[in-house]
Amino acid sequence: MQNIAALEQEFESKIERGISIEPKDWMPEKYRKTHIRQISQHAHSEIVGMLPEGNWITRAPSLRRKVALLAKVQDEAGHGLYLYSAAETLGISRDELFEQLHSGKAKYSSIFNYPTLSWADMGAIGWLVDGAAIINQVMLTRTSYGPYARAMVRICKEESFHQRQGYEIMLTLSKGTPEQKQMAQDSLNRWWWPSLMMFGPTDAESTHTAQSMKWKIKLKTNDELRQQFVDITVPQAEILGLTIPDPDLKWNEEREQYDFGAIDWEEFWQVVKGHGPCNKERIAARKNAFEGGAWVREAAIAHAEKKAARTELKKAV
Amino acid sequence: MKKQWPIWEVFIRSKNGLEHRHVGSLHAADATMAMENARDVYTRRSEGVSIWVVESKHIVASNPSESGELFEPAKDKVYRHPTFYNLPDELKHM
Question: How far A88 CA lies from chain B's nearest CA (Å)?
Fold first, then answer.
C-alpha cells in the first residue's frame, strides 16, 4: 500500500507530463470534488439550456428553422447526457446529480435564467451563447480528466452547427425589414452582457481559477477567454451591421485587442444567487419533468425485472 | 433512494472494416432500451453502422495500482520488436 504522499506525487507528475487522469486512477479528493462540481454544472447547463429554446420550437418561422432548432435542442440533451456520464465516473449517481440541481446546491450557467422574448433570441443565443460556450469547450478538450475531455471533443464537433444556425438567423433578420433588423439589434442588446458574464468572475475574483489552472482543469483564465470571445465576436457583429451595446468598446492598437466596458457584476451575482428573471421557472420545469417522469422510470424497471424473471423461468423449465 | 436504471457501456463500429470502439455510457432499464438510447445519444450524425451495449457491471477492468505487474514485464522485451535485429542496409523487402 503506497502512502498518500507518494500517490499525490505520482498524480502531480502525471498532470505535469500531460498524462490524462482516468476514472480508476488515484486522484486527490479535491480534484474529484472539483470535477464533480464543474462537470455537473456543465451538464445542468446543457439540460436547463434546452428550456429557453424549447419555448420557440412550435413558433419557428419556417420548417427549415424548426428542424434546425429541434436538432439543436436534441443535441443539448445529448451533451447533457455525455456530461452526466462523465460525472458519474467520479462516483456520484445520476439521481444525486439531479437532486443537487433541484435543491440549488449545484449551479448551471446563469445565462439560461434570462427569458427568450422574440424569435431573434434564437439567433442571438446560437451566435453569442453557443459562441461563448464553444470558446470554453475548445479549451476543455485538453482538460486533464479523460472522460471530461472526451465528452468535450464530441460536443465541440456537434456544436459548431449550433452557432452557425444562430448566426444565419441573425443575418436573415438584419438583412430584412427595418423592424426585423431592430428585432435582431434588440436581441443583441439583451444578450451581449449576459454572454460576457458566461466566462465567470474576473480572474481577481475567481476562487477556483488558480487551483484549476494548476491541475490543468482549465488552461486559460476567465478573463483570457472573455477577451478571446470579444475579439472574435466584434467583427461578426460588423458583418451583421448591428451595434454592440457598449460605448467603451474600441480597438486597442497597442494590445491588438478590443477594450470593452465594465461588466455589471452585481447583476451577475444576483442571477447566480437565484434572483434572475427565470430562475424559479427553470428549476420548476426541471423538477416537474423529473417528478412527473418518475412513474415511467419505475414502470420500466418493473417491466425489465418481470421480463428477466420470465426468461429465467423459461430456462428452468 | 429509488432504484435507478443501470449503466450501460456503448461501443460503436463507425464503418465496416473497423472495430467497435467504446464511445461512452448511458442509463437504460433493459437491453432493448439501452440499444435505442445508444442510437439516439451516440449516433445522431451517422457515426455508426453497428452498436454493442453491455451493462457496466459485467466489465472486468484492470486496476491501475497493478499496472506495474501487468505491463512492465513487456518493457524489457525489446526483442519482440523488428528493430531489435541488426541487419545490413542493402537487405530489401524485410
Answer: 10
